[in-house]
Known about the structure:
Elements: H1 11-21, E1 26-29, E2 35-40, E3 46-50, H2 53-59, E4 63-65, E5 77-82, H3 84-92, H4 96-99
Antiparallel strand pairs: 1-2, 1-5, 2-3, 4-5
Amino acid sequence: MISKxxxxxxxxxxxxxxxxxxxxxxxxxxxxxKADEQRPDGPRSHRAVNAPSxxxxxxLGLVEFVTPPKAGQTTSWHRVMISLxxxxxxxxxxxxxxxxx
Length: 101
């Protein structure tokens, strides 16, 4: 979607992509304006933690809905996964520390 030369990700966006790639579950609201990370909180429950990088990564085309929301589901929460462009970006992206800055 966005060319590699113009794509500039923050460290938190890179870490979020890496966590998503490693299997961490994220939920994005149907209107794509708010997201939560589902952190384990006991043997059978999860605790929702705000994930502000996910809506930005969605707008950049680096994450996508597992099942796209239907019309009228703007306030429902839906699981997201890393897209093909996101996989390419996570392999190429380096944090400031990794670049030596």
